[in-house]
Design a protein that fits this description.
Blueprint (H helix, E strand, L loop, with lengths): L1 H4 L5 E5 L2 H13 L5 E5 L10 E7 L14 H4 L2 H21 E11 L8 H10 L3 E4 L16 E3 L9 E8 L3
Helix pairs in contact: 4-5
């Protein structure tokens, strides 16, 4: 993402895991990318700045990658899915406060469950009338976006994992 926006723009990466941020920092250094500020923190509570674009790569049940991690089939419970859905909504809700007018908020998971995907987005849109679901003009692979404007990939076609994403745009006033 940082390479795509170019050195004139800044990217803020917030993660609750120091380990994941250290991996990110190592990759940024290896790739000589210097426009990323890494912040250890809880995305549900993060409150610094206004942004034009936000990616919420939400923690999830991982049901879309069970092919890689088959043990998930036996350890993921309905209660886990419910907890993830609450966390996902809270991440979206907080991110909405940080998004500028006309900005895009992209939500993604590696889950195939409606409870973590469509239902989270539907609740968010019902409670945030200043947002709309859009098909982003900047997205290159239109073949994976359905008429409902949700992005979904499926293994066995030309993609390796099940992914879900939605682009929410804050309306101009």
């Amino acid at each position: 993402m940082a390479a795509r926006v170019g050195s004139a723009s800044k990217v803020t990466a917030v993660d609750i895991s120091e380990l994941r941020l250290n991996l990110l920092r190592d990759n940024l250094k290896r790739l000589s990318i210097d426009n990323v500020l890494t912040v250890i923190g809880d995305g549900i509570k993060f409150a610094s700045g206004k942004y034009n674009k936000i990616l919420v790569d939400a923690p999830c049940s991982g049901t879309g990658v069970f092919r890689k991690y088959p043990e998930g089939r036996w350890i993921t419970t309905p209660e886990d899915v419910g907890r993830f859905a609450v966390m996902q909504y809270n991440l979206l809700n907080n991110s909405a406060r940080l998004l500028s007018e006309g900005g895009d908020l992209v939500y993604s998971t590696c889950s195939v469950l409606h409870a973590e995907n469509e239902f989270v987005i539907e609740r968010f849109l019902n409670e945030h009338p200043d947002f709309e679901l859009v098909m982003p003009e900047w997205f290159q692979h239109k073949d994976v976006i359905g008429e409902d404007k949700f992005l979904r990939t499926f293994p066995g076609l030309k993609y390796f994992d099940n992914l879900f994403a939605a682009c929410l745009r804050r309306k101009q006033s």
